[in-house]
Amino acid sequence: MAVKFPSLKSKIMKFGRLSDLVNKAKTLRKGRVLAYSFKTKAIQDYVLILNTDEQLFNQGVDRNGEIVGRYAKKTERIYAGQFFGGKAKIAGEPYFFLDTGDLFDSFSVVVNETSITIIATDVAKLADVMESPDLLVGLTDESKRELIKEALPIIRDYIIKHLLK
């Protein structure tokens, strides 16, 4: 019984297909992948959740991961018995930036081929009570890692579709 080896023609066909994939991979543009991957409302909402809910409300940290400030005893007395998003303002605890919800509602995301930008129109209103309110806008390194985990399947799917079209 003779052993059959793949013909030279089939090897060339497989190599040709591989070279097609390599050539298609070379046409991928980082900006298009970014814009496509972050164009959905769900992923943009996740960016905002990371910034507002996780960083500001749950941790009280700015985009550098630094605690923005802590509530004073006077603040605790003024707001005794009041809850904001289920939380009380307790002396020594980090600020959680939720009074009326207006601040968080002012956050939005703009995506293009070069960046993902978080915009917060009401942050400037905090300039009279804090030194650098602009630091509230943006993701910490930890949040960026979480965002990448969330976006990776979308990026992978886009690249595969591009290669196989």
Mass-distribution shape: elongated
Could you give a short account of the major beta sheet?
A: 2 strands, antiparallel
Written as H for each helix and E for each strand, in order along the chain, the element string is: HHHHHEEH
What gap, in angstroms, lies between the N and C termini? 41 Å
| Class derived from helix and strand content | mainly alpha
Q: What Rg, in angstroms, do the CA atoms define?
A: 25 Å
Q: How many β-strand runs?
A: 2
Q: What is the arithmetic mean of pLDDT?
A: 87
* Low-pLDDT residue intervals, each spanning 5 or more residues: none
Output the number of helix runs.
Answer: 6
Strand order of the biggest β-sheet: 1-2
Sheet-strand content, in percent, reads 5-15%
Helical amount:
40-55%
Sum up the structure in keywords:
6 helices; elongated; 6% strand; two-stranded antiparallel sheet; mainly alpha; 165 residues
Describe this protein's structure:
This protein is mainly alpha-helical and 165 residues long. Helices cover 48% and strands 6% of the residues. The protein contains six helices and two strands; from the N terminus they run H-H-H-H-H-E-E-H. It has a two-stranded antiparallel sheet. The longest helix has 24 residues. The model has no long low-confidence stretch (mean pLDDT 87).
SSE layout and pairings?
Elements: H1 8-26, H2 30-37, H3 41-59, H4 73-78, H5 102-105, E1 107-111, E2 116-120, H6 141-164
Antiparallel strand pairs: 1-2
Helix pairs in contact: 1-6, 2-6, 3-6
